[in-house]
Amino acid sequence: MQNLAPLSVRPAQPEGVKPARRPINAKADRHFVTALARGLEVLSAFRSRDRMLGNQELARRCGLPKSTISRLTYTLTKQGYLEHADDGHGNGGYRLGSAVLALGSTMLARMDVRQLARPLMQELADRSQAMVSLGMRDRLSMIYVENCRSESALTLSLDVGSRIPVATTAMGRAYLARCSEAQRTALLDRIRDRDPKGWPQVRTGIERALAEYRELGVCTSFGEWQKDVNAIAIAFHAPGGRSVMAINCGGPGFNLSPDYLLREVRPQMVALAHRLEEPGGAF
After folding, report:
1. How many CA within 13 A on the CB side of residue 279?
2. Mean pLDDT throughout 87-98?
3. Paired residues of 219 in beta bridges
């Protein structure tokens, strides 16, 4: 198995000192366009289950003044990246527009690994009676870019575009185990700064996950992300590139015991990842 360096983070700040937010600040980099970055933050604030969001909620999620959000949503709507929405009870807001769909569709269409992985993932989903997902990292989340379910399985209600946390999920931990040491250290710093109080418990889980990866080739999350969800995951380097992606297999704990996932599913996931890393290996 891959040799992993010991878990490393920079020294913690003194207790009671709130870590500085990473500001969107053009002055720090003369090439950085603050307005563009803020607009992208607004688009990134939407999650797959959000039917619509108002300016107040967007301001809360983005950490920006409501007046700034109002100007951004106006501009994004004019450009087709947002659309006006109504919940039927007189409450207005915004939803993602067709311009965002066009960008996402173009990106997914160029992701050849999805076409390579899908038949193998579906085969594993049918065998395990679970949900098998392919994901890639975006900041402190893993985003699902492909999902396969067994027709007869009771599975999780997560679809393409869903986000799950890096720190507490099997998929996120597998990514941490496979990315470079420098990337891992930077991510751990950000995870700790985001939740200093919860960091000791999170760090313990990640340390255990890295040890698991060294020994078993997979990472687990048994009730740690959500108490009734069990999953295992493995990461791999996508063919034709250096990016790290991850595949997980999971579902309700009453359907998928830790023993079953490790004994029956783990060998199949290891074989699947090896096939995807080899050029043409999925055929």
Report:
1. 3
2. 85
3. 233
For residue 173, which phi and psi values (nearest 5 degrees)? -70, -35
The answer to pTM > 0.85 is: no
Q: What's the pLDDT at 17? A: 37
Average pLDDT, the chain: 86
Higher-confidence residue: 192 or 240? 192
Query: Is there a contact between 80 and 74 (Cβ–Cβ < 8 Å)?
Result: no
Q: Structural domains in the chain?
A: 33-102 (1.10.10.10), 111-277 (3.30.450.40)
Beta-strand relationship, 92-96 and 163-165: unpaired
Instruction: Give the model confidence (pLDDT) of 215-245 as tens digits.
Output: 999 999 999 998 999 999 999 998 766 689 9
Radius of gyration of the chain (CA): 20
Q: pLDDT value at position 264?
A: 97
Task: Note the pLDDT tens digit of each residue in 137-151.
Answer: 988 999 999 999 987
Identify the sign of the CA torsion 45, 49, 53, 59. Answer: negative
For every residue of the chain, DSSP letters joined together read ----PPP--PPPPPTT-PPPP----GGG-TT--HHHHHHHHHHHT--TT-S-B-HHHHHHHHT--HHHHHHHHHHHHHTTSEEEEE-SSS-EEEEE-HHHHHHHHHHHHT-HHHHHHHHHHHHHHHHHTSEEEEEEEETTEEEEEEEEE-TT-------TT-EEETTTSHHHHHHHHHS-HHHHHHHHHHHHHH-TTTHHHHHHHHHHHHHHHHHHSSEEEESSSSTTEEEEEEEEEPTTS--EEEEEEEEETTTS-HHHIIIIIHHHHHHHHHHHHSTTTT-
